[in-house]
Amino acid sequence: VLLPLAFHCSTKALSDFFVTNISDIIALLLSRFTKSSETAFEVQLLKKSGCYKLMELLYSRLPKEELYSKESRINQAFCSTGAGGNEMSKTLIKSCFEAFTENMAGETQLLELRRHYHCAAYTCAIAVISCSFSEPKFYHGFLFSEKPEKNQFILENIIDVQRTYNFPIEIE
């Protein structure tokens, strides 16, 4: 319900919403999973996925100056003291990266929902990086670099590896 409203509201209303709620959203994203029960874990995955989608929407709709600058009201609301302008974006990119490179070796619980969670974190990272940076090193370093030695895999987490993909052959 919240995503369509946030998508269609004015940028002023969107900005005001995030000034009020950014601390709670980031706190939820930074919270650790508690796999006490499958139901509790499922709720956590859904909440975090929703928050990543909200943050993706924010970085897709608002200009860099409103998100990645000393004057950013949302960043000031996030860090509340001595805002340098990049704290929210740095925190969010780190959170996204940790989410979509999660080590899934041996995991069996809620695999498809976790894949959707990884996708939400990845698309959020794309939105943050494309809004905040123009240098290729950020795209390469955060979006396209897998580190097998650290068990940091991207494609295995966002693509359904059980599915067979068939692409039509294109000939020019």
UniProtKB/TrEMBL annotation:
Domain of life the protein comes from: Eukaryota
InterPro entries, A to Z: DNAPKcs_CC3
Name used for this protein in its record: Protein kinase, DNA-activated, catalytic polypeptide
GO molecular function, one term: kinase activity
Biological process per Gene Ontology, one example term: double-strand break repair via nonhomologous end joining
Stretches assigned to the DNA-dependent protein kinase catalytic subunit CC3 domain: 1-172
UniProt keyword annotations, A-Z: Kinase, Transferase
GO CC terms: nucleus
Organism: Nothobranchius korthausae
